């Protein structure tokens, strides 16, 4: 057998082995996903429940929040051109609060994602930052694990705090910044105020909209 024929045979054999290997790997990945997807979904649901209950105590509502949710179309006030999630809380079928996803687009190191809990009367139940890239030791104090600064918004609303006060103290508002870091808290304060404006303008729609967000979960 010539060298060229031998080389061709080896290439064919190696190609077949690689194809079989790739097929097996794909099968293993598919099988692993099939086995673990329910566990992953359960863990995500538990994490969501923990976050929601940090903002509104579970004793204050009795509905299935995970399924009483809607997708909000892109909104400038919420800082996103893409749909965002909202979770509604009810007691005896009456609205209690809503948890809104919101994004501050102008953090020091990029977007700051958060969830804002708003009671039916428009007051803040709580705020949590869910994702950010702010500077460790400075801007990351917006994270509840680093500082309790984010809890300073609890109980505030556009009714008891005028829009002119929704600024950091350096800009003439009532909220403290961090030593050496003003851009980050400024972005968060501004976005929370915009989120309250969105809630105020869309309150009725938010609680009465029937579209479910669960179609997103199933994709």
Strand content: 15-25%
- CA gyration radius, whole angstroms: 24 Å
Topology order in helix (H) and strand (E) letters: HEEEEEHH
User: Sheet with the most strands?
Assistant: 5 strands, antiparallel
Which oligomerization state do the chains in this entry correspond to?
single chain
- What do the pLDDT scores average to? 83
The share of residues in helices is: 25-40%
Please give a structural write-up.
With 219 residues, the protein is an alpha+beta fold. The chain folds into two domains: 1-55; 57-217, no CATH class. The protein is built from three helices and five strands; from the N terminus they run H-E-E-E-E-E-H-H. The protein has helices at 3-55, 183-208, 214-217; strands spanning 69-72, 84-91, 94-107, 110-119, 124-131. It has a five-stranded antiparallel β-sheet. The chain starts with a helix and ends with a helix. Residues 32-45 and 215-219 have low confidence and may be disordered.
């Amino acid at each position: 057998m010539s060298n060229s024929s031998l080389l061709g045979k080896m290439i064919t054999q190696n190609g077949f082995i690689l194809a079989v290997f790739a097929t097996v790997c794909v099968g293993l990945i598919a099988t692993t996903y099939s086995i673990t997807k329910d566990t992953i979904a359960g863990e995500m649901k538990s994490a969501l429940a923990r976050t929601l209950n940090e903002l509104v105590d579970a004793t204050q509502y009795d509905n299935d929040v995970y399924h009483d949710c809607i997708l909000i179309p892109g909104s400038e006030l919420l800082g996103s051109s893409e749909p965002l999630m909202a979770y509604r809380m009810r007691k005896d079928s009456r609205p209690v609060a809503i948890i809104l996803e919101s994004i501050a687009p102008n953090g020091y190191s990029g977007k700051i994602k958060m969830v804002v809990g708003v009671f039916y009367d428009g007051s803040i139940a709580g705020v949590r930052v869910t994702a950010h890239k702010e500077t460790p030791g400075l801007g990351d104090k917006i994270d509840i694990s680093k500082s309790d600064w984010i809890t300073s918004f609890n109980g505030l609303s556009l009714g008891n705090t005028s829009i002119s006060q929704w600024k950091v103290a350096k800009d003439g508002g009532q909220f403290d910044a961090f030593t050496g870091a003003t851009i980050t808290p400024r972005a968060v304060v501004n976005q929370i105020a915009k989120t309250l404006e969105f809630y105020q303008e869309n309150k009725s729609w938010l609680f009465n909209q029937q579209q479910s967000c669960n179609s997103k979960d199933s994709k």
